[in-house]
Write a structure and sequence with these properties.
eight-stranded antiparallel sheet; 11 helices; globular
């Protein structure tokens, strides 16, 4: 990962934007620039630290995904003058038994199209590169949302899309070059005419923009090669609706759902991160470079009891020895740890820690890779 600590980078961005409670749908448009320190000094130093390392690592992930699109042809779109270009012009597919077995890009057409002002869109790029996948996981874990990542690459100065709004909240992360953004300051305004006081900025590498759902915006290039990621996410509004419906059924006042209740409900969801622990689950082996992370997309609820420890995650209640509490707490932070780092931070003996990791892989609450 070249020193790119994904959770630290995600925390840096979210803190710079004001923290999870300040992000959509709770507030309006927010902008963070690594060259501008927040008023409280809580985050942000000029293009240094996690911001710079994260931008470089994610950009490397974009180029890696472009070099090896594999069988995921539907992840790629080429948009020119507001219309999608037929894939047969810029992508070749090998078909067998009625299924697309492999796809490759046609560089000559793709290069010329982007030079003319077309935009290459890579949808769900988290499925194509590990660095982007880990960032997506970190955003989900910290915001308690479902998230996905799209990538936009262009080299012209025109806009491939007219003024529009999206049905989800988004974090825009500029990785390469500069891109011009105009975003309506009226949250929820789907008007085709932007308000006079709309945000009007050119984003540079390392800058992050928060755009609420249903908010009109327009994006255009600056005549140079530019790459940005759009991290789309959907807060679990349905959990609040569930609580309000229960109050209505009982005829009680509909107060804001308790945070403890919301966190427990999220832990009861079966949503799992991508990844398989095949080696550790089947052989019990854990190597020095094995990377270990919590399997759930959302934080678990950990409850000490008189005779043990109850972990609620992915809709299950797992009973463990009370002596594992500190290590389970360490793993449940959500970041990826190598065996070496985990062993250094855990209070368990090496033998007990290996038993826990093997048990976690076998019972699918830990993902062990490598």
């Amino acid at each position: 990962m070249s020193g790119f600590e994904v959770f630290a980078y995600a925390q840096h961005l979210l803190a710079a934007l004001g923290g999870p409670d300040a992000l959509p749908p709770a507030s309006g448009v927010r902008l963070y620039s690594p060259a501008e320190s927040p008023a409280d000094g809580s985050a942000g130093s000029p293009a240094a630290g996690p911001a710079s390392a994260g931008t470089d690592a994610l950009l490397a992930g974009v180029w890696s995904a472009l070099a090896r699109p594999g069988a995921l042809a539907t992840n790629f779109r080429l948009v020119e003058s507001g219309r999608q270009v037929d894939r047969s012009r810029w992508m070749r597919s090998r078909v067998g038994d009625g299924e697309v077995l492999h796809t490759t890009l046609v560089p000559a057409y793709l290069h010329s199209a982007i030079e003319r002002g077309a935009t290459l869109v890579i949808s769900h790029i988290e499925a194509l590169d590990e660095r982007v996948m880990l960032l997506c996981e970190a955003i989900e874990y910290q915001l308690h949302v479902r998230a996905w990542v799209n990538c936009y690459i262009t080299a012209g100065d025109a806009s491939a899309f007219d003024v529009h709004s999206d049905d989800h909240d988004a974090l825009i992360l500029q990785l390469l070059g500069r891109k011009h953004w105009q975003v309506d300051t009226r949250v929820g305004a789907r008007s085709r005419d932007l308000a006079p006081d709309s945000l009007d900025r050119v984003l540079e590498p390392g800058m992050c923009l928060s755009v609420p759902r249903d908010t009109a915006h327009c994006v255009s290039g600056t005549g140079e090669l530019t790459v940005h990621l759009t991290i789309g996410y959907e807060p679990f509004a349905d959990l609040r609706e569930e609580a309000l419906a229960a109050h209505e059924l009982l005829g009680t006042s509909a107060a804001e759902p308790d945070l403890e209740w919301l966190a427990t409900r999220l832990a009861m969801r079966p949503d799992r991160r991508a990844g398989a622990s095949l080696r550790s689950a089947l052989t019990g082996e854990v190597g020095e470079s094995t990377r270990i992370r919590w399997a759930s997309r959302f934080p678990p609820r950990i409850r000490p009891t008189d005779d043990g420890l109850v972990v609620i995650t992915m809709g299950r209640r797992i009973r463990l020895d009370r002596r594992l509490e500190a290590t389970i707490g360490l793993l449940s932070r959500g970041s990826a740890l190598t065996w070496h780092d985990l062993a250094a931070q855990s209070d368990l003996s090496a033998a007990d820690l290996r038993d826990l990791v093997r048990f976690g892989a076998r019972n699918d609450f830990l993902i062990c890779e490598g």
